[in-house]
């Protein structure tokens, strides 16, 4: 229908307008447009008939069956993508090699459970009632979850006890179980970005799914509202990691909000033990149908087995430490290593043959557990950056590794940790790097991006009205738009698939033209002001109306094209910060060519000597540019919820922010390479499209003021070079 409207209405109107706008030597050939319009009308009629015939053949349940098939396809592709994502993360964290650290868990004795009758119901296993006392290790967590009648599990533990590791193992295990027996898809999500006051849990899960797996929003490939239907119809098992990473005041509200969702909805929740007990005591609400298990401290024998794996403890360096652990199982070192996090840090810190782990037995330097923990947290970053490259890359995770010196690496990581602490978050998202700056600094970035975009648009306008006037109008418009620019909330994606593109473009055309006409109205207001100042445009309101139409239509078409290209991708892929950055950078390149340069070129050609032949003055160009830019910026913010040019690009904001911070020495020049390198070294972990520090305790330690250097250093920093 829309194609027919364009063919029989807009095309003839455009031809009539062009008859008075094109040069005289072109007018004799305009009649060729009418046969083209007739052929297009016939094609439109044929396409419309086929569309209605296809719709008729799908009646009687055919459409519903196709919709269900596409929804099942979405679930299947999501399961495969989630498995690839967390299998790669488990490989980087070396959760399965050389020897996994054995984690133990059992039913908690804390007053945070509703009791066995509420949790177990009439569930049976092997013909016998499910026992109240639950316990096991790494390999038992999946059978526990699948045997629970309501499949609701709360996993508690002390800081560094291995809750996230167990959540990853549970997710991968449930995906393997699903391959054989079917069922819902487990999706591991960090709870740090959820605010239960303003967002229902299911709605938040849907939003996170679309952010991490944007292809789910493509209704042409998957079912309409695929993410929402997957969640609401029970095709997703949310594995919610880190309730304690939310602000403390939200903990009781979050537990109550989770308890209010349908009792049959399966989920997994992890939290620190103390924070969960405090939240239950404050709010008076427990997860009434959830089993609550708690991770236990790691035993001395498990620590010895872990440290001995791969021949690491075969030399004399570790003999004294292992003997001490066997003989003094309740000493400060054994207490510190009862945490899986500290055990993993110990192994990383003393991997270097030049480092002597026996120094931890010195009671003068390490009199208690806290001293050992502080030492390992401080020595971890220098250790992983000294003398060695990061582990081999998992497929698709980056380019050639770099070698960094420990001192600047720690300084950069400390800066990032402090930035996250300031904003009370654990998520390191590259598109939010601009939050480092003050509001005035962010306004300056928006203004700079607006001016850059305006310059590009002005070059296009200058082709038709003259370079000097065109650049003046473009820069003035960019200045006006930059004054009201705000950082975009999330990166965008470009989908260059052409199948079904005409219909999609038609849906985007109306809001695009609306924004374009708002810009034209702003330019008209500016014309009126300029005319009152004696700097008006020759030809009066008639000429101004032509300019407004040209500017509005050209900008509207460019906006529609960009909204069309921003349609989500048609294939699910594992989210990563680098892939999201590449996608947004592609969108930005297309935007600057199609939307900015293209609209400026169209406006300039139609307005200037190749079109209406309107002579635009320098002063009028400045005033109209500012007015049109302000109108365009306000329309994008408050009407269409989108902006134009580089100001609409998260990559643009990131580029300026990174450049300024690198210039000041606070971050490296190649920030994404550095973050990817830190991820493979085990300093950072990846949660969807964002990075997080390996553990909250490491982030907290790095964000604190750096300790004064001691007389004795575990590792001497080595100046590194790029390889």
Question: Quick recap of the structure?
Answer:
By secondary structure, the chain is an alpha/beta fold. The protein has 25 helices and 11 strands. The strands form 3 sheets. A 7-stranded mixed β-sheet has the order 4-1-9-5-8-7-6, with helices on both faces. It has a two-stranded antiparallel sheet with strand order 2-3.
Class per helix and strand makeup: alpha/beta
DSSP strand count: 11
The proportion of strand residues reads 5-15%
Helix content range: 55-70%
Strand order of the largest sheet: 4-1-9-5-8-7-6
For the structure shown, list the relevant keywords.
two-stranded antiparallel ribbon; globular; single chain; disordered C terminus; 723 residues; 7-stranded mixed sheet; Rossmann fold; alpha/beta
Protein architecture, described:
With 723 residues, the protein is of the alpha/beta class. It has four domains: 2-57; 83-295, Rossmann fold, CATH 3.40.50; 300-385, no CATH class; 437-657, no CATH class. Helix content is 55%, strand content 6%. It contains 25 helices and eleven strands. Strand 7 (236-241), helix 9 and strand 8 form a beta-alpha-beta unit. It is globular. The model is unreliable at 1-11, 122-131, 394-398, 533-538 and 710-723 (pLDDT under 50).
Give the SSE layout.
Blueprint: H1 2-19, H2 33-57, H3 62-92, E1 105-107, H4 116-120, E2 124-125, E3 128-129, E4 135-136, H5 141-147, E5 152-157, H6 163-181, E6 185-190, H7 201-212, H8 226-232, E7 236-241, H9 251-260, E8 267-272, H10 273-283, E9 291-295, H11 300-308, H12 319-327, H13 332-337, H14 340-349, H15 369-385, H16 406-422, H17 439-465, H18 467-483, H19 501-532, H20 540-565, H21 577-607, H22 618-639, H23 650-663, H24 671-681, E10 684-687, E11 690-693, H25 696-703
